[in-house]
Amino acid sequence: LQNCDLAQQSIVHIVQSPQKNSQNKDETEDNLAGGILKALEREPESLTRVDLSTSILPSLSAGLAVILDTTKNSISLPSEKSGAASYNSFYVFCKNFCQAVKPGKLRVRCSVCKQGTLTLARGPSCWDDVLIPNRIRGVCQSQRCNGNIAEFYFKCGAHPTTDSETSVALNLVTTNSRCITCITCTDIRSPVLVFQCVHRHVICLDCFHLYCVTMLNDRQFIHDPELGYSLPCVAGCPDSLIKELHHFRILGEEQYNRYQRYGAEECVLQMGGVLCPTPGCGAGLLPEPGVRKIVCEPVNGIGCG
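Predicted structure:
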């Protein structure tokens, strides 16, 4: 196991591959054999060492490995075995236990039986491979399972987790491996959040928290019909709205609840509704067309009557 590069708090499952007599299974394995053999020709890399930050950090750098590109020479990330500083490839928001941004662990399972017994035809090389379903195939080694689609998920790497416990990946948060200064405070911090604008502006998490709270207090969040209640790059760059709204979990529980409430209110207003003016109420009301008077009636614990 010493060559598996397992992160702390990892659970190891030993799977004995059964004899496959099914013709369909054999055909699937034959089709995938080429990709699997190519992956085995070089030193195996675990999912804990996959680095997807090249798609979000600004510019290019030889210091970031393209782990799964079989057509080019890969550069290994720092590892504890070599005495180098640890490199966290992924970050998640651990809602249940830590209630904070923590290093994450990428895991994969069969989309059919939900067991971690799937042999991948290839590893993920970009965030779309991980976040968009049905992009990567494989062969499930569980008996009586013909699953061939990989399902990726994330777990918090800061504490032991059960098999069913997962965390949301923060794909814009990454290790600041290139020592880029924060656009707001100009300090070099890590991890950082990288806005997906043309310039890939980088902001430290403390400044991002302050930015979000300030915009929330001024109700300057933008309601996008497709994305929801979001913020653009702190520099005001066009086409830079944050798409994964779980990044606003960085606000903390109290401020995040306020963010959700403001987002719901903005949605009501965008739909042509109104908010109850009674102090302490603020329920969203959607009047019928042509109605000039509306009563805030108590329904399901909402409304002042």
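Summary: Confidence is low (pLDDT under 50) at residues 33-44, 60-85.
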